[in-house]
Design brief:
The protein is mainly beta. Helices cover 9% and strands 30% of the residues. Strands 1-2-4-3 form a four-stranded mixed beta sheet. A hairpin with a 2-residue loop joins strand 1 and strand 2.
Length: 77
Amino acid sequence: MTSYKCQEIDGLDIFYRDAGHPNNPAIVLFHGFPSSSHMFNNLLNKLEDRFHLIAPDYPGFGNSDAPEPDHFEYTFD
């Protein structure tokens, strides 16, 4: 069963999906751009019996808070 959680990191609430038993080997699933952890729903259901799965939403994506524009610098080359 997948749980939906948030963790405050540097003043932002970061959303993540958590599935499987914490004593199982862990796998962290990072989504692509632009996307969210929602893309892993089917995979979480298939692997949760064997692994502890964590799928966060990057800041500004999915259900995570977005940083203020003056605190987040990025470029596309």
